[in-house]
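FIELD: query
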Amino acid sequence: MNYLEFEKPLAEIEGKAEELRALARSNKEMDVEKEAAALDRKAEVLLKDLYKDLTPWRKCLVARHPDRPHCKDYVDALFTEYTPLAGDRAFADDHAVMGGLARFNDQPVLVIGQEKGNDTKSRIERNFGMARPEGYRKAIRLMDMAHRFGLPVITLVDTPGAYPGKGAEERGQAEAIARSTEKCLQIGVPLISIIIGEGGSGGAVAFATANRVAMLEHSVYSVITPEGCASILWKDAEKMREAAEQMRLTAQDLQKLGVVDRIIKEPVGGAQRGRKETVEAVGKAIETMLKELAGKKPETLIKERRQKFLDMGGKGLAA
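FIELD: result
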């Protein structure tokens, strides 16, 4: 278990319980289960207290937790007959973006998402989920295919933002993001987006301009990272906690603003402590949202999607 900064007291208690059990395994005559169980109960209470009312900054830390389920985990668990499709037919294949044809509950769909990787090698290969222009152009190609064959599109968003490197900018990063966002608004099929971790800047919007947008309870969605915001406003990245408080980047705030339609509950302690339950909850949400959009005509889907984003923020700003 990787523990976050604010989980240190929990790490100590759970560590002591594990030490007792390790001693018992090495010495069969020792009976420590009663003491270990008491520590387990204490840890359970502390875990609930820690996650009962997370601050926006702590939600950022949870959203970035390396043990949270990533895009590939959801694809492997929820979709069958997944056939990956690669390349943008212009420059290269971007491994930060994965996508392809699949079945969801035996219904043909097209799934696209940002994959961060789960160890050093895969994180470098996936560029930590930060897509380059070819990643967004691959997404455009796949959305065009879904439109042509009448397939619902499901996107799984988890990125700190689009890759800001020199090569990416030279190849038209901003234009690729804008075209991907535009394509989201143009396709005449149901488009569902789930923010499963970080929804960072235009890199997330390019996948999340959808008919239905859902967020996991402890995910975040914002125009910039709190560190980036603090660097711009106060010239001090260490003021990220204050920035996070003001940015209204949590699922709860964004639902009030009308940016997201649905919050998917996470297990106590976050998705990283209940990966199976979280994946199942996301699957149920996708199923519900697909049913809500089923049978709607292409022109209706496009009109409703456009209007959704034209109206965005109105009710929250009035509050």
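FIELD: remark
The first strand starts at residue 80 and ends at 84.
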